[in-house]
Amino acid sequence: MRSFSLCLLLMTTQAFADIYVVVSEKSPMSHFEIEEVADVYLGRKKTLGSTYVDQVLDRTGEDRKRFFSAVTNMTESQVNAYWAKLKFSGSMRAPDKVSSDQGMLEKIIENPQAIGYMTKEPPASSGVRVGLHIHE
Q1: In a domain, 5, yes or no
Q2: Which of 78, 85, 92, 115 is such that its CA lies 20 to 30 A from the CA of 127?
Q3: Which strands form 128-135's sheet, in the order they lie side by side?
């Protein structure tokens, strides 16, 4: 029974093991490092390479917790406090929230200078490409 529980735990962890940072296929952004993505999502930079990022798209719930933990090594409450300070100072606008993978795909496709993330690999013909694949 103990080994069954361990296998179940490992399989559950495996199911939630990847994060895909995505951009439009029409985007000049192609591949980026995790530090660059962290800088954009924390409002430290507005560019990836030499490309201006017009729209930063965020998720909600467990996907958001996992993303910020993997990319910034911060908890969700730390990220919320960080953005509250920035918004209060009036210096930055927090990333736009998107509630589903489909919604993320639609927003990324319509804006070639947007960036977002998904927990499932986007289909090959989806109109987006993966710029960073994070294995947790």
Answers
A1: no
A2: 92
A3: 96-97, 55-58, 114-118, 18-24, 128-135
How many folded domains does the chain comprise?
Answer: 1
Q: What would the pLDDT profile of 31-61 be if each residue is shown by its tens digit? A: 899 999 999 999 999 999 889 999 999 999 9
Buried b (16+ CB within 10 A) or exposed e, 39-76: bbbbbeeeebeebebeebbbbeeebbbbbbbbbbebee
Tokens at 131, concatenated: 């710029």
User: For residues 134 and 45, what is the distance between their CA atoms, to the nearest angstrom?
Assistant: 20
Q: Give residue 92's domain range.
A: 17-135
Tokens of 128: 């987006």
